[in-house]
Amino acid sequence: MILAIDIGNSNIVLGCIEDGRPLFVERLSTDRNKTELEYALQLRSILQLNGISPQEISGGILSSVVPPLSQVVRGCVERILGRRILTVGPGLKTGLNIKIDNPGTLGSDQVVDAVAAIAEYPTPLIVIDMGTATTMSCIDASGTYLGGAIIPGLRVAVDSLTTQTSQLPRISFEAPEHVIGKNTIDCMKSGAIMGNAALLDGMIDRMTDELGAVPTVVATGGLVPCVVPHCRHQIIMDDNLLLKGLWILYAKNTKR
């Protein structure tokens, strides 16, 4: 059993994985002000709540797009497990052929998503990750990472709208009954949910044209259930894609 952790800008996703199967998945709010001890106390509580002792965990792996927190979280995990853990980054074998201008700039979350998607689904692929930003990654039929797009995330866009205007309120991320809203709240929900669904559909069409083949489309991330059901394309929702990718990378680098 290993502990896999992904640090995103909004949430930290973590879970224990055994034989490629997540035993549990939990989310914490990303807080750059918390200390190593504070994260350690949270992690220990999560393990206890899920009935897992640190002694049962044989290793760990971490990916992060928040560099200031990487060392803090890694330190807390190693403190609890009593052993060093792997970190996704330079020096870690991924097996992913990346053909972008500077492969070193590709986010670790996109690397992990791509590795898992290639292992689980037919290529070519479009991989969508809806978090603080919405990322879309394109992978060709040979499994080569070609590039993608980074889009302002749903929550970021709506928060910006409500903070930069005087009369628009905060909304919940629920789809309205109709695309054509009849009041301010429904108009905002239509723009947020249906607008993002249309955005994904349009981007998938354009990426498919450039790929020259119909891709498998896979989506992951906390906001996927709010938007993807309203898309017109067939999109596979895989909430555990990141953790699956971390398991694959751990196994690849420890020869499990």
Task: Summarize it.
This protein has helices spanning 36-49, 67-81, 108-120, 154-163, 184-211, 224-227, 241-254, and strands at residues 2-7, 11-18, 21-29, 59-64, 86-87, 97-98, 125-130, 133-139, 144-152, 216-220, 236-237. With 256 residues, the chain is α/β, with parallel strands linked by helices.
Tell me about this structure.
- This protein is α/β, with parallel strands linked by helices and 256 residues long.
- It is built from 7 helices and 11 strands.
- A 6-stranded mixed beta sheet has the order 6-9-8-7-10-11, with helices on both faces. It has a 5-stranded mixed beta sheet with strand order 3-2-1-4-5, with helices on both faces.
- The longest helix is centred in the C-terminal third of the chain and has 28 residues, at 184-211.
- It starts with a strand and ends with a helix.
